[in-house]
Specification:
The chain is α+β, with helices and mostly antiparallel strands. 40% of the residues lie in helices and 34% in strands. Helix 1 packs antiparallel against helix 2. The chain folds into two domains: 6-41 and 80-119, no CATH class; 45-78, no CATH class. It has helices at residues 45-57, 62-78, 102-119; strands at residues 6-9, 13-16, 19-22, 25-28, 32-40, 82-89, 92-99.
Length: 120
């Protein structure tokens, strides 16, 4: 049997010609039929509501209004999109790895696709 070829590896993820390992959980590549990346955007409703309340507060307290608007902007900026690796197999669809780092997710998906192609 030939040695496994490593396509990607960091502290949390390893992709080889035979396995996909995330946080100690191993999935055999032979069972994976498709790999893709997806994302979930953060819900922005509450920061918007807080900002509108801040605008309304200008009529009676500019200090409170500015404070609420600043909080709304900071809340908005701190919210990040969740990106994830989605695997499809005969048993269904699994979101196997999640990160705020889109580039990392893209590298993992590319490595998984390369490993699947390598397997033939």
């Amino acid at each position: 049997m030939s040695e496994e070829k490593v396509f990607f590896e960091n502290a949390d993820v390893k992709v080889t010609s035979a396995r996909f390992v995330t946080f100690g959980k191993t999935q055999a590549l032979s069972g994976i039929t498709a790999v893709s990346s997806h994302y979930i955007s953060p819900k922005r409703t509450l920061p918007i509501v807080l900002g509108v309340v801040g605008l309304i507060c200008f009529s009676f307290s500019w200090v409170l209004a500015v404070l609420l608007i600043v909080l709304a902007v900071v809340w908005w900026v701190l919210q990040k999109t969740d990106y994830f690796v989605r695997l499809e197999s005969a048993s269904g669809i699994t979101d196997a790895f999640t990160s705020k780092d889109q580039e990392l997710i893209n590298k993992i998906v590319e490595a998984l696709n390369d490993a699947i192609i390598h397997r033939g």
